[in-house]
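Please go through the protein record below and see whether the fold suits the sequence. Record follows.
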Amino acid sequence: MPQRSEMKRKSGSRRQRRYTVALPAGIANQVERYAAQVDASMSKTITALVSLGLEAQESRKREFFKRLRENLANADPQQEDRLVDEFRALILGR
């Protein structure tokens, strides 16, 4: 029989948090269509899409810093401005 502290640790590692979110109608419709296509609940679909979005954001950051390291040797001010613009586009989506 597991000790009490082991049971706490196991149950705590799988704890989920619940959030209520409001989606704009257009996005909600897209999510509903996608959920139907993949035969998943709205909750699971939203979770998957958020996860993919977070992974994509992290990937854009890694790509930016990779490019930055490759270009750090250039001290050209125009190059620096271009890198700042790329940073905005990759990280902030602007």
Observations:
- The longest helix spans residues 42-71.
- Confidence is low (pLDDT under 50) at residues 1-9.
